[in-house]
Amino acid sequence: MTAEASGAAPGTTPLVGGAPALTERQEARRRRILAATTQLACRGGFDAVQMREVAEAAEVALGTLYRYFPSKIHLLVATMQDQLAHLHTTLRRRPPAGDSAAERVAETLMRAFRALQREPHLADAMARALTFADRSVSAEVDAVSRRTAAIILDATGLTDPTPDQLSAIRVIEHTWHATLIAWLSGRASISQVRADLDTVCRLIDLPPAG
After folding, report:
1. pLDDT of 204 above 50
2. SS3 61
3. What digits encode the pLDDT tens for the residues 138-197?
4. Within 119-162, where are the H helices?
5. N or C: which end of the chain has fewer CB within 10 A?
6. In whole angstroms, what is the distance from residue 113 CA to residue 71 CA?
């Protein structure tokens, strides 16, 4: 994909994806950019997030925005990572209830769905960005995947997961993203999402393969 096709400004060097740690001032600027992106996406979804509008709302130069996020897709995937980080913090303060790991994981993921339900335009924008992401966004997509897996692992309460349990966590993560897309596209109701998540989360409680 070319820079123009992806929305990236040619000749810019992003401050993400393996770059040195941001200074306090740079981090504050990044927070403003993500907040502006979230606000625009909440109002109008994927199409409402335009790089020039984000720059204006965050009070940064357009060239500066491209240095942090070389395309709209990078920006929205980073926004999803940020939203998951906030969710993870909330979940650690209020861990899910449940007698089994499967019950706790299912409750955790349904709490995530309920949060997304409150901002469907934002959820759609982030999910579409993940769908459109190519190899240039692999670092950001991997960060989303790692955060999702960490949320699931925390919910299990497992301190030393087996290889089978780690595999189950990956399958649960994939299913969560798939059900999110199915719900956003109108192909699955919340009750169907709950049933699918309850089913896949049972994998975590299965005995090790013989």
Report:
1. yes
2. coil
3. 999 999 999 999 999 999 999 999 999 999 999 999 999 999 999 999 999 999 999 999
4. 120-132, 138-156
5. C
6. 27
